[in-house]
Amino acid sequence: MKNCWKILDIEETTDVDIIRRAYLALLPSFHPETDPQGFKQLRQAYEEALRIAQSPAKSVWQPEEYEVAEHEILLAFRALLASDSERFLPSAWQRFIQQLNYCSMEEIDELRWSLCTIAMNTAHLSFECVVLLAERLRWLQEENTGEIDEEELESFLYAIAKGNVFNFQTILHLPVAVQNDTIDFYQMFARIWSSHPEWLTLYLAQHRAVIIPDDAKLHRNLLRWYSAGRLDIPELLDYAQSWRETEPDNEDAPYYEYAQRVYCGEGESLLAELCDYWREYPSTQADALMLQWCRQHRVDYYPLLVMMIEARDLVNDQGKPLLYVPGDSARTRFHLYEILSDEKLSALGRSLVEMVLHKGRKPRISLTRDTE
C-alpha cells in the first residue's frame, strides 16, 4: 500500500468521494498554524491519492471524468460547515479566516466567490459567523464576476445583515438532527410571520415537540407572534414577567405578560392587575385583553365592558364625558351580536344585549370618572 493511503487511513480505492471524505475527516486535526508539517503531508497524501484514483491505467476512470483537486481553503471551509461542534462558533470561523492570510491576492480573488457560493448553498448557516467571512472577502464591496446570480447574491447579503432568528450557539449541545429541525422550525415561523401571518395559527397547530432556545431576542419575538395570534405559550410566562420587572419603562413588556396570562387562562387572580393595566395604558390592545378575559371567565361582564369602552372615548374638548347612547358604534354592535351566540351568557345578560340592539328605548347614560 502506498504511503498516501496510510496517511489517509483508508484502503486503496478509485472512489474519489471516499478519498475526499477521508481527507475532510482528518483535516481538523492538522491545522496549518499548529502543525504545518502534518498539514502539508496530509495535503500531499490527498493529492497523490487523487492522482492514483484518476490514473488512465485504471479503466474504470475515463479521461473526461478526471477531477482536479479542490483548493485546500475550499475543503477546509466545507469541513468547518460540516463540523457538528464548530459550525456555529465565531471563534472557529476566525481560525478558518486566518488561513486566508497565507493565500496570495490572486488566490483570494479566485476563492472569493467560490466560498460565497458554498455558503449560499449551505442549509443551516450562522449569519453571525458568515458575516465575518463576508467582511474579510468584501462580498458587499467587490464586484461580482458573474459566477453568482446578482439577485441571489443581493438576497443573501440582505439575509446576512438581518441575522438569524436566534443565536445558533445556544443549541450546539443538542444532537445535529435536533439542531437542524429547530432551525428549520423557527426560520419557517419567521418567514410565515413576515409574509403570511394569517397562516400562523395553522402552522402552530401541527403537533410536534419543539425546543425553545435560550435566546432573549427569540423569546420576545415568540411573545409577539403568539400574542398577535391570540395563542398561549406558557413556557415563556416567567420570561415575560422578568422582562417587565427588568424594563419597567418598556410599555411592550407588561402588555405581553398580561396577554400571555390571559391566553393561558388565568382567572380571578389576574383581574385586579389587568384592570389596573387597562386604566394605566388605554389602548385597543388593552381593550382586547379585557374583552378576552371576560369571554373566558365573566361573560355577563362582557356587554358592560363593551359599552364602557365605547363611552370612554366620548369626551369634549375639556376631557369631560359626553352623553352616551349605548350601542351606537358599529364596533360595539359587532361585539354585542357576537356575544349573543355565547352559551355562557346568562338570561339577564342576554336581555341587556337584546334591549340595546333590538328593543325599546335605549338607556341614556352619562358616565363619570368615578363610575368608570
TrEMBL record:
Q: Which PROSITE patterns match?
A: DNAJ_2
Please name the source species.
Escherichia coli
Which keywords does this chain's UniProt record carry? Answer: Chaperone
In this protein, which residues make up the domain named J? 3-70
Which top-level group of life is the source organism from?
Bacteria
SUPFAM superfamilies (alphabetical): Chaperone J-domain
Q: Which InterPro entries match?
A: DnaJ_domain, J_dom_sf
Q: What is the lineage of its organism?
A: Bacteria, Pseudomonadati, Pseudomonadota, Gammaproteobacteria, Enterobacterales
**What is the protein named?**
J domain-containing protein
